Amino acid sequence: MAAAEPKPPARTDAARRLARGCWSAFWDYETPKVIVVKNRRLGVVYRAVQLLILLYFVWYVFIVQKSYQDSETGPESSVITKVKGITFSEHKVWDVEEYVKPPEGGSVFSIITRIEVTPSQTLGTCPESMRVSNATCDSDEDCVAGQLDMLGNGLRTGRCVPYYQGSAKTCEVSGWCPVEDGASVSQFLGKMAPNFTILIKNSIHYPKFQFSKGNIEHRKDGYLKRCTFDEVSDLYCPIFKLGFIVEQAGENFTELAHTGGVIGVIINWDCDLDLSASKCNPKYSFRRLDPKHVPASSGYNFRFAKYYKINGSATRTLIKAYGIRIDVIVHGQAGKFSLIPTIINLATALTSIGVGSFLCDWILLTFMNKHKVYSRKKFDKMVAPPEQTAEPELSTSEPSRQDSTFTDPRGLAQL
User: Fold this and answer.
1) How far apart are the first and last CA of the chain?
2) How many domains is the chain built from?
3) Chain-centre distance for alpha carbon 182
4) Which of 39-43, 252-256, 360-364 has the highest mean pLDDT?
């Protein structure tokens, strides 16, 4: 009788089974089990969630946000400005060279509408302004010689002298005299200012799409010499009256001219480059930028001086100017169809539709009366059998427990 061949060790069998399982998992196709639940209310919830997700992606993501496009924000921009007009005050006529600061024609400039002039200031000694803290005095003992107040107008000499008017006294300072509030004269330039015209020339460029455009119409018939801006009929005539800008910003011109303020001219270039270039048009808006309701920082003013000599002595005219500062701000966004964002957003939309299944499964497994029945049908629980030296043959006469789970009609009827 031949000797029996030795059986391979159990570890070798386990390794072979693992290798066969890995090889099978690599080539086999797996699909989830689908269970149909006959529940009308749950079906309505499921379709409603799917419909809402679909409407969100179709209407908001693709139509409103245009997520199928590649986009670029913040165009490269150039702004050139030019102001024209003449006005007058109580003492003289003012032209554009005098009331526009700075005169270079950049995106930020000021139009002077009121001034306080302190003429003929010379280097000497004079009473300090009463607006300076600790400037008032009763005797020389109240004034410290050599003291320099950073908010004052000069170096204190140590003397207490009478003020420019009234019976009050202030400490004497060495500097440009008389000080500003001692002899200033106010002049209003805003009578003709609403009729000043401002040309705002703007050119933009989107480097990603190699797209450029300007806000002036290309015509050779002297169009710019006789037009002013109108949003409907003259969109490409960027010549604005100062009064129109202030009115569009919702401000009172007379009040603004006296206190000063900052007005923003916002030019927005939102361009859909899937359409023709003629559909890419500038949109103008106007608003006040400085906080007018905060008394401590309301208004806008600045100082400058004009220097000259009288009889060989250095003399200057100090001017405190109130005006309307114009800030031209350009921004925008351009978009053009691109395959990559389209595929990404389509995939996101299709994946998000599965939220309806997740929500309905959660309702079934948590709140439905027969949620335990649904749980048994949805999830199959299998326990691995203990390792055996010889695998017994499966009997075909009695169906397995797992098969009965799939073919049991009572459980499906209970759903």
Assistant:
1) 63
2) 3
3) 46
4) 252-256
Cβ partners under 8 Å of residue 244, min gap 6: 229
Residue 396, annotated as binding a ligand: no
pLDDT tier for residue 350 given thresholds of 50, 70 and 90 = confident
Residue 221 per-residue DSSP state: S
Full residue range of the structural domain in which residue 141 is found: 129-178
Q: Do 206 and 195 share a domain, yes or no?
A: yes
Is the residue at 413 inside a domain?
no
Q: 306 among the known binding-site residues? A: no
Residue 381 annotated as lining a ligand binding site: no
Residue ending a domain, among 142, 158, 178, is: 178
In 3D space, the residue among 88, 85, 92 whose CA is nearest the CA of residue 119 turns out to be 92
Tens-digit pLDDT profile for residues 154-177: 999 999 999 988 889 999 999 999
Does 268 belong to an annotated binding site? no
Q: Is 220 labelled as part of a ligand binding site? A: no
CA dist 369 and 363 (Å) reads 10
Instruction: Answer yes or no: are the C-beta atoms of 299 and 261 closer than 8 Å.
Output: yes
Instruction: State whether 310 and 214 are in the same domain.
Output: yes
Verdict on whether the full-model pTM lies above 0.85: no
Q: Tell me whether residue 193 is in a domain.
A: yes
Looking at every residue in the chain, the average pLDDT score rounds to 84
348 labelled ligand-binding: no
Task: Show the beta-strand stretches assigned E in 237-394.
Answer: 239-241, 261-272, 283-288, 301-310, 313-337
